[in-house]
Specification:
The structure is a single chain. The chain is an alpha+beta fold. The chain folds into 2 domains: 266 residues, no CATH class; 33 residues, no CATH class. The protein has 5 helices and 16 strands. The strands form 5 sheets. Strands 1, 2, 3, 8 and 9 form a 5-stranded antiparallel sheet that branches. A 5-stranded antiparallel sheet has the order 11-14-10-16-15. Strands 4-5 form a two-stranded antiparallel sheet. It is globular. The chain starts with a strand and ends in a 7-residue tail after the last strand.
Length: 308
């Protein structure tokens, strides 16, 4: 699989976080609408079998990359007090510039102090009012509610992809079609609108190297049975919801799902794979055919200064 980057310019605010599993779900609906359910089923079967045509990262702000989860712990085992304090400060660091990320990837644990001040997502709270379906008006008592909208300070997001040879045009086409519909909640009123900047860019910034002893994930994921288990990670409980034609199926909510977040790092004893994780089945009580994307976009890394 070859690595690419796709940059998306966000046209305004969005309500749904740009996470790999949600992006993948939106792309699946594009396939279902344009090519039919049988084509989608065969497409998903490749993910079930562990032979995915492409792997996605989360939508990352600008050129920034998630800080590896072991980084804040690297200074806590040192006997040097100043290094210990620096390690404590690293706990506040969520994102790294590409140069700092590469430095950490090569085994270093000190970064530019300005990394803690990087601006990524800002939240905008707007007031809305429900509509009385009988009178067609607003203004009933208790009809006001708040909506939390998000915007990336960087103005665009980067999605990294590992694509099987021959799937490049297909992947770009899927994102082009998605740009016509919008992404996530309330896309019918313009939320989640975006345009693609340029084409798929070949990207070699995550190449493997001989000294790597682990990987860092650029996406939320669900570990597979035989995946590495020694590592550092944070946990997100995902309360997913069916989309597309299943939005109004009566029971659109998926079962709660525990996922490891982007930035999770794991030691690897053998050759590092391009991806880990799996798709999760039986996630929807009302639609048993639905699966949940849980693959990790793995980037080789030297995990140093900490022990599992």
């Amino acid at each position: 699989m070859k690595t690419y980057r796709l940059r998306l310019k966000l046209s305004g605010t969005f309500l749904t976080p740009w996470q790999a599993d949600t992006i993948f779900g939106n792309l699946c609906w594009i396939i279902a609408w344009l090519e039919g359910e049988e084509v989608l089923r065969k497409f998903l079967d490749e993910y079930r079998s562990g032979n995915p045509p492409f792997i996605l990262s989360d939508g990352l702000p600008g050129d920034l990359l998630p800080a590896p989860a072991h980084l804040p712990l690297a200074g806590e085992r040192t006997s040097d007090y100043q290094e210990y304090l620096e390690g404590k400060k690293l706990k506040k660091t969520a994102w790294l510039e590409p140069e700092s990320f590469e430095s950490v990837r090569q085994g270093k644990t000190s970064i530019d102090p300005d990394a803690r001040e990087l601006k990524t997502i800002k939240t905008v709270t707007t007031l809305h009012s429900t509509i009385n379906r009988i009178t067609g008006t607003t203004g009933d008592e208790g009809s006001l509610y708040e909506l939390h909208e998000f915007a990336h300070e960087q103005g665009y997001i980067s999605i990294y992809l590992k694509i099987r040879e021959g799937w490049e045009k297909k992947v770009l086409s899927l994102f082009q079609d998605l740009s016509l519909t919008g992404y996530g909640k309330k896309k019918s009123v313009g939320k989640g609108a975006f345009e693609i900047l340029g084409e798929l860019e070949s990207f070699n910034g995550f190449d493997d190297f001989e000294a790597a002893n682990g990987y860092v994930s650029l996406s939320n994921f669900v570990p597979a049975k035989n995946d590495p288990v020694q590592g550092f990670y944070n946990i997100l409980v995902k309360y997913g919801k069916l989309g597309g034609d299943y939005t109004f199926c009566g029971k659109p909510f998926k079962k709660p799902l525990m996922m490891l977040t982007a930035g999770s790092t794991f030691f690897v004893k053998e050759e590092i794979k391009p991806f880990y994780g799996k798709v999760v089945e039986n996630i929807s009580p009302s639609k048993p055919e639905v699966v949940h994307y849980g693959y990790a976009f793995a980037v080789p890394i030297i995990i140093d200064g900490v022990v599992p």
